[in-house]
Amino acid sequence: HYQINLLFLMLPTLICAIGVAQSVHMLMNWQHEYRTLGSPREAARVTLQKIATPALLCALTTAAGLIGMATSQLKVMREFGIYSAVGVILTFIVALMLLTSFAARAKPRSEKVRAAGPAHPRWLERIVYGCMEAALAYPKRVFAVIVALTAVACFGLSMVHVDFNFAEELSPKVKWRADTDKIEKIMGGVLSVVYVFDTGKTDGIQDPEVIRGIASLQEFAEQQDIVADTTSIVDYLEELNQAFHGGDPAYRVIPKERDALAQLMLVYELSGGKEMNDVRNIDRSKTVLELRVHLVPASKISDLVDKLDAHVAAHPIPGAKVELSGIGLLWVKIADYIAASQVNGAASSFLMILAFIAISFGSIRLGLWAMIPNVLPFVFVLGYMGYMGWHLDYFRMMLASVTMGISVDDTIHFLARLRVIFHEKGNYKEALRETMHEVGIPLTITSFALIIAFSSYLLSDADILASFGELLCLSVLVGWLVELFLTPTLMLLFKPFGPEVNPESRDSAVKPVPQPA
Questions:
Q1: Percentage of the chain surpassing pLDDT 70?
Q2: Which of 35, 63, 157, 213 is an S-S bond match for 317, by CB 3.0 to 4.6 Å?
Q3: How much is the pLDDT for 487?
């Protein structure tokens, strides 16, 4: 069974935003047909014929993008990917049924109202259609500018690295963050890195070579900046040896003879001492070195572990197997999982969305062209992160799947209408203009509705969620600009639907190309 976790906090807003985007496309198409036909039921019927299949494909591809996170090694991310994908499909079903039902019950419009013109503002038309005309007038220049901007974004992307710090992901005014900072200041380290030394035999840790090897590693660890304190059996043995020699500081060392070492442990046990039990097991075959580490990003802990491992490799401890444990190691592993999840999630989302588009439109070539506008928002967002010095953490690792899943909706609506209109007209510029007149305004409104919805994340006390909302808003904005400029440019330059033709010269036996199914 699934539980409400940290990632679940963003799910209601995400599902609601996607549902609104789906509804806007449906309502605006219905509104256009309603103003033309006057009959709400007939308008609803025509709207379903034009938009139901593209809307279903949008829901499926968005769900495919989100469910790509199910490949993650992190349980919370897998669960989020699954129930967000299910939520998108359910939202589509509910929106389609309710909106169609309500729209069909509207009152018929008079001829006077029907002739009143479009309901959206003229300034919005000028912006959307102006962008389109710029792309159509200068396609090569627009394409060159986008390629240059992509290169700049890729340079920033190269500076992005995986890292996180649980404490710094919360606002300083949050009580948990304040308490943690106070404990960190007083205790000097709340994380731990633990090395376990297993000799595999009873009384194995009574070997002076093993103890001296542990002492060497402990001394090296104490020289590292992020290590606040260390504890091992070496501390107890040196203190016991000094006490055996009248408190002489010169004897605060490890005895060279095995018998002397065994005698110290025996006397300690006979005297009733129990503190050493924290650093060794009962049969004295294992012992540990515990490092108390400052609350720092996972990357610094990873660097510390690499240095310590290199020291162990250069100064091996004879007869002892060395293993690593502790909360600090968990942070390092989570960072590794984040990196793997980002790569696997992005690849899975890309392939599944590509497969849906290729199958629906019957063309792998068109699917690959369609994926370019959906990948670019993610590239630009990661580039922005690189220039801002932000790292990829357990929230931002979802950017690839979420941004591609959202961006693909506008592309599908655009291509679905363009394909039909191009077959009717046979001319890319004319088809693009008419497509933009049908799809451009709904595409713009849905984009800014998503931006407004994701802006709610900026109010969160969790800085990590606020920054994720900022990145999502940026990705939607970039996706909107890409659809207005790059998608028409790609269609015009590379002609994925085939060469231009004169519809009147076609053979009458050729049937119209149906909408994607």
A1: 89
A2: 213
A3: 92
Which structure tokens are listed for 426?
A: 């046979």
Q: Token match 């627009």: residue?
A: 142
With contact defined as beta carbons under 8 Å apart, do 289 and 278 qualify?
Answer: no
181's CB contacts (< 8 A; 6+ apart) are 167, 172
- Indicate the SS3 state at residue 485: helix
Biggest CA-to-CA distance, the chain: 111
pLDDT of residue 55: 87
Q: Angle 75-104/327-361 helices, nearest 10 degrees?
A: 40
Mean pLDDT, rounded, for 125-151:
92
Tokens representing 16 are 């609601």
Instruction: Give the side-chain half-sphere CA count within 13 A for 473.
Output: 16
Beta bridge partners of 322: 197
Q: Which residue has the higher pLDDT, 413 or 142?
A: 142
pLDDT at 5 over 50: yes
CA-based nearest residue to 92, from 64, 70, 63, 49? 63
Distance (Å, whole) CA 92 – CA 53: 12
Return the sign of the alpha-carbon dihedral for residues 503, 509, 512, 517.
negative
Q: 317, 213 in Cβ contact below 8 A?
A: yes
Q: How many helices (H) and strands (E) does the chain have?
A: 16, 4
CA distance 160 to 385: 7
Chain segment 429-488, per-residue pLDDT in tens: 999 999 998 888 888 999 998 999 889 888 877 777 888 889 999 999 999 999 999 999
**What confidence tier does 119 reach under pLDDT thresholds 50, 70, 90?**
low
Residues in contact with 171: Cβ distance below 8 Å, sequence separation at least 6, in sequence order: 177, 461, 462, 463
